[in-house]
Amino acid sequence: MLISILGFIAALIIGIVLGLTGGGGSILTVPVFVYLLGIDPVLATGYSLFVVGISSAFGAIKNLQKGLVNFGASLVFAVPAVIAVFSTRKFIISAIPNVIIKNQHMLVTKDAAIMVFFAILMLAASFSMILNNKRLVARKMLTQPKKTNYLTLGALGLFTGLVTGLVGAGGGFIIVPILIFLAKLPIKKAAATSLFIIALNSLIGFLGDALQIEIDWMFLLSFSAFAVLGILLGISFSKFIDGAKLKKGFGFLVLIMGIYIFYKEMMM
Length: 268
Known about the structure:
It is found in: Cell membrane; Membrane. This protein is mainly alpha-helical. The chain has one domain. Helices cover 77% and strands 3% of the residues. The protein is built from eleven helices and two strands; from the N terminus they run ααααββααααααα. Strands 1-2 form a two-stranded antiparallel sheet. β1 and β2 (107-109) form a beta hairpin. The radius of gyration is 18 Å and the shape is globular. It starts with a helix and ends with a helix.
């Protein structure tokens, strides 16, 4: 009972961070499911897709109402991404053997491999949140806009969909820079469009799981409700709290957790 309560409190905190910073909080969803609630890593990545998708959808709806979503860039990026994430959940995840490597020196299981890959993603996300990229972005904004590279944008959409499908994270820290530098979108529109893409990727990717495994809908909807409540609180708090500074501090938390997960899985 206590563990369940802590899990829902964690969902609330994840939502608040998402509401305050516009991204990043969802990367804690899988560790909460696996290490706090004891859910199997493969199932946890599927559950995470649903939570991330529902949470992002609330933000995306607000952005749509404000006219901040670029549908052209969304279409080019999201179509291959959605195909990749659905195919990964439906076919690739189930095709990976439970024991990948087994000999007298090493044992690598499917669950461990997924969590190690997730830890690497967490480290990459933490550096993205911690490092100050304002100068780089400002330099880009001063240059003359070039023609959008749709071919590269679509290829990176495919890659992002694969990553999202494997680890169940939204990938906003990957998508936003791509939309800024390849789709030539202003920062605010890139963030809004990213949230729209994440919602599509995550929810359609989750269908790949929903079609083949049994889902505890009562738990999943309850967890998602707390995350959404957190987002609404975070949006309200954002008027009084500096989201940029919070995101940098949160980046250090993600860094520490990524190192912990990597160490824990490698030492097992």
